[in-house]
Predict the structure.
Amino acid sequence: MPIAGRTNGQHALPATFGFKVAVWIDELLRHTERLGQAAPRLFVAMLGGGGAGTYASLGKMGLPVQAGIGRLLGFGEFIIESAGSDQALQTVDHIPYPEQLYLEICGLIFPNGEQASPDEPDSGDD
């Protein structure tokens, strides 16, 4: 059965309803394949334990416990170590004057105060 084809919201050359359904089925099959490919990257075990995922309550057993739980659930393993597992930043208690650090970083990113205000449109001269 011929139907009006559509392109950019306008009528185009005639098409058949069967062709239209075939396109929908193809799209659904490709999306289903993408979901299957994404699953191993999405389903990973990130346990952490303790405050802010630092393994504080698990200590040295943190990574093995996380890997074991991941295996039990059929998940992949979270590769990046937690901040609490023998890293240099583990000993930093706080950052003194965070607002000063923020201003210094902004100064590096936007030298000479060239930062556009939120009210001004970007001129696009970059």
